[in-house]
Write a structure and sequence with these properties.
304 residues, homodimer
Chain lengths: 304, 304
Amino acid sequence: MKRAIIAAGTLAFDTLETPSGKKERILGGSANHFSIAASLFTRVEVSAIIGADYPLDYLRTLNKREIGTSNVEVSSGETFYWCGKYTGTMNEAETLSTHLNVLVDYDPVMNDVAKKCEMLFLANLMPTKQLKVIEGAEGAKLIICDTMNFWIQNNLEELKKVIKKSDVFILNEHEVRILTNELNIIRALKKLATMGPKTVVIKRGEYGALLYREGERLFSIPAYPIDEVIDPTGAGDTFAGGFVGYLATCPDYNDFKEIKKAMLYGTVIASFTIEGFGSEGIMDVTMDNIQKRYNELVSMIKID
Amino acid sequence: MKRAIIAAGTLAFDTLETPSGKKERILGGSANHFSIAASLFTRVEVSAIIGADYPLDYLRTLNKREIGTSNVEVSSGETFYWCGKYTGTMNEAETLSTHLNVLVDYDPVMNDVAKKCEMLFLANLMPTKQLKVIEGAEGAKLIICDTMNFWIQNNLEELKKVIKKSDVFILNEHEVRILTNELNIIRALKKLATMGPKTVVIKRGEYGALLYREGERLFSIPAYPIDEVIDPTGAGDTFAGGFVGYLATCPDYNDFKEIKKAMLYGTVIASFTIEGFGSEGIMDVTMDNIQKRYNELVSMIKID
């Protein structure tokens, strides 16, 4: 079983600063990170927009990994740009600047290849565009969605519509707290689950991830232990890539046991991501590398 | 199998402020919280000092729970007093004031009952006093030790001697970071394990606990989900009480599997603690209550 996934999000230039150094205008963006991770499991179709400054050669690099780019719109403007900084324990990024550029007038349209994909991942993007993608993704049977604090604070009404249409909602701890107005994470989870999604996944950085599934079922896993974190950028998107990628290969993606395993795959793939700047850490990862860390992670939570 | 435990630490008056309210001068202290928790599993002998202002009736309350108080010294001074406040996510206390009082001249001496105990728990106390307790606890075969940031910052050399003599060292995340000068928790753990203890336990508040055992073996568990935290005071001590208490009942307390189970018991008992002020939440807990949450916690980390 190998369902195809639409990854709707951003292709971007990122300038990143961490205690390990600084990288200027490297290739990034939520759809980029997600699709590299998910392509380890199945075929991915990217839905995004790029500007005239984006290196088209890089799309060929993606194509070599079973990542389709026929839904990537090339515009005459400038590509989306994000500049961020991580300090201390590096659990959260500080945004130094965001230039939306071509994203402002982006009007996502799905072609026939995308319309046939059975899974849809909505990476962090303006909620209005996410709604447009949901409309276009006619074949999507499972909708997994991510967001960020900016949209919670500035586009809450549209975001609520997206949440209502999502089967799985993935967000970080700070985001679920401001979205639900609950400091207690258990209450926050339960509140979010009443807003639409049957499954909520909380990303907690170095503390791992927490899953809430309707019927009050919780599952918690630690982060894979990494003793030298280089750059956390993309960890959330590649977590989602591993999570959705694995589910795309499961006969029943509603099976709680498979959803738990998907959490483990997401966590392992994120662990490779943070060992390099941008997507450096994950580019050459193999299924053998993944399986080895998967087994180590299982042993970290196994009692008997 | 039921080994007895010496609990060396403080009996105190605590003034506590949390988002749920304020309590003035209630009975607390590390040895109090620990021994109430550990007495759910086995006999505990408290080693501590109290002032003339301490209600002796309360010692009788402890005695009814298999907690021996023949090593509690009654001094003419004032009992140790701590005043703390919790805000926001309540993961760490802010100390508003500490009056050491009778602790200043405390010279812990073990009587014959204490000398026969096979397990020694050194709750948070001045490292010089902890060393004196280790000397006196002649029968102790397993030494488990806790500390706090104050001693790391002000008595590091003495604390290092305590660490060297400890088999299990329990501390919180912030403490292990300042103690080892490592922000990365995995590197911090490994560094601490080279300083003496074969086993290190990191308490992470709402994120659960992380265990490192020599030979690079890690085990991680989440906190038991509590949707209304009243007061986190004593959670660390009762975690240790459940942890050491369970180990005291194990035929082999060096068995990694038993150490993992001890982490689960500690976590469950801490979860009851935070549901009330001081030791209110744990006073009437039964083994049935504990076993129920233990099973729920196991299901939160179980994949199959």
